[in-house]
Amino acid sequence: GSGGGEKSDKYLLGGEGVASNVPLLEGGTSSTSGGSGGGASSSLVYSNIIPSPQSLPTNIQGLIKTHLVSIDQHLNNSNTNSSNTGSKLSEAMTLLTSLQEGLKELANSNNYTNEALNPESMNGYSNAISLLKSILNCSISLGVVPTSSTSTSSATDVAINVMGSCNFFAYQFKHHVGTVVREAELSGLNTSATTSGGEGLISSARDVRTFTSIVAGSELVNGQGGVWPQLYYALRCGDALAAESIVKQYAAANNTNSSNGDDSFSGVDPAVLHIISQLVELQQDQETIFGDSTNGNTRSPRQVEKSLLSPSQTMLQSRRQVCELYERTKTRMSSLSGGGANNVEMPFVPYRAACLALLSGAESISEVSVLESSGLVKTVEDYLYASLWHALHLADTTSSIGGKGGLQNVSRAVARLGKLVNQWGPSYFEQQDDFGDVSASSAVAAAAGVTSAAQRMPVSGGWAYTLPLLASQQYATALAYLAEAGGGLGLLQATHVGVLMDAAGLSVSDYSNASNAPSQTLVPMLVASFSASLQGLDAEAALKYLVLLSDKGKFVKEQVQRLLLETRQFETLAGKLASDGSRSNAALDSYFSKSHVSSILADGANVAIQSGKPADTAELLVLS
Q: Which of 519, 451, 455 is closest to 52 using CA atoms?
C-alpha cells in the first residue's frame, strides 16, 4: 500500500519512498475520495489510483535494471520509427524479445539465486510474456494487425488470440514432453524398451511415443488400441506432423483396415487419417497447427482463410464423419462395465474418445462426462487448452469466411470461458492454504485502498489466477488482480505486460459478449503507479516510465509534475541555472521540447503554491 493516510500535505512520500497519492486519469468524474489539501481548485480533486503504488522489495533491483534497459531501447525506437501499425507491431516484438532476454540473463546470473525472487512468480511472468509472443506471432503469420488498444476486440482479434493461446499451451506441453523424455534417458531408464515399435517415426513422434509409455504404461502403448494414447498426446502438443507419423506407422504395422468388431474399434478409421492429413497441410513446417511463424520472414503471411479459423468444406465434412465415430464411441463407453471410463479390457477407449472429440470439435474434452474419471485433463493448462481448442473448432465457414459470422461462435465460447474463470475466482486457482479467501472484487477493493493487513500474498505471486484470466481474454481483470495480489513484484510484472500489450495495439480490456467499453485507463494507471513506486529509488527511471504515456495528453504532464514535487529532484529532472541565466539540460529535456519543459515547470509551480510550498514554487519558476 501507499501509506498515504490522513495527511494535510498532498505531496508527502509514503513509507519507503512510495508516492502517497497518484491522481486518476482525466475524465474520471469520481471526485469522492478527493486529494487532501488544495481542495479549492477542481483540478486538485483527485481519486487515488487503482492499483495503489507498492513498496518495491529490495531483491528486485536486478529485475528493475534489466527492464529499464529494455524500456530505454523501446523509447529510442519509438522516437525514430514512424507511427504506422506495422512498425508498431515490430517495435512491440523488439521490446518483448528484449524483456525475455533480460529475464534469461538475470536467471543465469549469480545474483538471481542470491536475491531469491519468488520462482513461481517469475515463471508465471515468463509464461505470460511467451503467451503474448505467441499471440503476436500468430497475428504476424496470418497477416493480421491487432485492431487497436483503443477499440474493443473484433471477432477476428478474439479468434487470433485464441490461436496464439492454443499455440502457447501446445508448445509448452511439447517442451514438457521433451523434458520428461530427456530426463528419463539421463536417469538411465531403459527408453529403448519403452519405445519398442517406434521405428520409422519422426523425432517428435518418437518423443510422444516414449512420453506416452512413461505416463500411460508401455503395456497400453504396445497393446491393442495403443495408437490412441499416442495420438492424444500428439494432439495435446498441437502437432499434426507427429500425429500423422504415429497413425501411419500404426496402420502399416497392424494393417487394421478390417471392419470386424474390436479391430476396427482399436484401429484408426479412414476418416481420422483423412482429417489428420488436412491438418498436416495447415501445419506445413511449423511447430504446431496453430500457425505461429513466418519462418523468420522467409515466407509471406498466409491468409486467415487458409488457417484453422476457416475450415474448408472438405475438413467440415471430415469432422462430421469423425463426430459420428465419436458418438458411437461414447455409446460404447457407457455400455462398457456400466460406464466406467477406465475399462480394464479396453484401456485405450477414453483416449480414442478424447481424440475423436478433439478432431471433430464435437465438444470440449474438459466437459465430457464419460471422460471425467479418465484423468486426461489433469492441469489448469490442460483445461484451458481443451476449452480453447474447442472454441477454435466452432469457426464455421458456412456463415462467411473469416467474417463476423464465421468467428462469432469462437467469440461466444471465449466469453463463456472468461465468465467461468471470473466466477471461480482466485481461491479456485491459488493454493488455498496460503491465500485465504480473497476474491477478485476484494482484490480490486484492496487496490482502491481498502486493504486488510492480514491479506497474504499467494504462493504463485498471483499468477495461478492471472494466467487463466489472460488465456480467457480477461485482460483488464488479470492485470488489476496481479498488480494487487502480487505486491511490488506483481505491480512491476503487470505494468510491463500492460505496456507490451499497449505497444502491440492489443486491447487491454475484458472480452465478453456485451459490447463493453475497453479499459483505456488501466495501462496508464499501472504505469503511473509503478513509476510512483519507483521514484524513491530512482527519479530518472520513474520519469522514463511516464514518458511511455506521452500520447496520453494532460495526464502525463500531471504525472511528471507530481514526480517533480514529490521527489524534489529538481536538478536531476529539470537541470540548474547557468551563470547566464539559461537552464542546463536534464532528464526532462531528453523527452520533451524546451517549451514543453517550461510549461511543465510553470504549471508545477502553480500546483506547489496551492499546496503551500513557496520554496518549491520559487525554484520551479526560476527554472521555467
A: 451
